[in-house]
């Protein structure tokens, strides 16, 4: 599965830090784009707080499902939320959190969707481990399919959380150099996690590569890309050949001459 991250959406779409900048429309549009890059690849999307009360959470669930998202997680921060790996988070009470989860589960049932509802709690930093477990148990009882303890601070804690909530599936959020120690996919599987996401696995290398490329352009006056890095290659990554085939299969003639430069 592939993750769609709220922090990544805030950074790439708005050029902003993850401080509650993104709206439902921002997140849904980005999730839909990612889900349709490779429809056979399930996407886990960030739904933040659900963007409002039960009616908005239900709307979020419906829109994510219709956009092709396979699973999404909802958290217990207030609307003016922040990235899970920043400090100073403010949370809603447990009952409000459970209401969000219940609204998502009921919306999924009403529309006959198989979208997976993941219950995330950020309570660890604010209220501690026991309250975090209590919130996840309440979310589980409200019908959430998967649990997500954000900001795990040790491997022992990770293993304990999985064991306490077993056999309910648990997701591990592996953000390197964040609050959670580095845990490999193999190690997470051994601990009992059923899902693991790496939200910065593409963002980090992309940021580094773009910075280096811009410094090279400033220094040399030309990007100096590798010969195979052509516009056609980039477009093919984005589905150029498949789109041309759609036109041909329908009897179109717009691309009979091909698209490669002669």
UniProtKB/TrEMBL annotation:
Looking up Gene3D superfamilies in the UniProt record yields: Phosphoenolpyruvate-binding domains
Keyword entries, A-Z: Pyruvate
Q: What superkingdom does the record give? A: Eukaryota
Which stretch is the leader sequence? Answer: none
This enzyme catalyses:
(2S,3R)-3-hydroxybutane-1,2,3-tricarboxylate = pyruvate + succinate
Q: Which SUPFAM superfamilies match?
A: Phosphoenolpyruvate/pyruvate domain
A single GO molecular-function term is: methylisocitrate lyase activity
Pfam name, any one: PEP_mutase
Record family assignment? Belongs to the isocitrate lyase/PEP mutase superfamily.
Q: What protein name is recorded for this chain?
A: Phosphoenolpyruvate/pyruvate domain-containing protein
State the species of origin.
Aspergillus steynii IBT 23096
Its ancestry begins with: Eukaryota, Fungi, Dikarya, Ascomycota, Pezizomycotina
């Amino acid at each position: 599965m592939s993750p769609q991250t709220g922090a990544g959406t805030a950074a790439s779409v708005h050029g902003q830090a993850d401080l509650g900048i993104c709206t439902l429309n921002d997140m849904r549009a980005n999730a839909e784009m990612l889900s349709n890059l490779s429809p056979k690849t399930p996407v886990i999307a960030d739904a933040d707080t659900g963007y409002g009360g039960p009616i908005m959470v239900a709307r979020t669930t419906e829109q994510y499902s219709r956009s092709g998202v396979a699973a999404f997680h909802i958290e217990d921060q207030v609307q003016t939320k922040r990235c899970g790996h920043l400090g100073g988070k403010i949370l809603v009470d447990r009952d409000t959190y459970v209401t969000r989860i219940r609204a998502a589960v009921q919306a999924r049932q009403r529309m006959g969707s198989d979208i997976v509802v993941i219950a995330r709690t950020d309570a660890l930093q604010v209220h501690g481990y026991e309250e975090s477990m209590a919130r996840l148990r309440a979310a589980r009882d409200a019908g959430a399919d998967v649990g997500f303890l954000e900001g795990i601070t040790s491997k022992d804690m990770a293993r304990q959380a999985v064991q306490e909530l077993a056999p309910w599936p648990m997701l591990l959020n592996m953000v390197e150099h964040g609050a959670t120690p580095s845990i490999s996919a193999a190690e997470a599987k051994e601990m009992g996690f059923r899902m693991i996401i790496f939200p910065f696995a593409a963002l980090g290398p992309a940021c580094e590569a773009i910075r280096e490329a811009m410094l090279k352009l400033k220094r040399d006056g030309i990007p100096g890309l590798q010969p195979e890095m052509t516009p056609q290659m980039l477009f093919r990554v984005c589905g150029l050949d498949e789109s041309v085939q759609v036109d041909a299969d329908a009897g179109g003639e717009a691309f009979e001459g091909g698209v490669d430069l002669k």
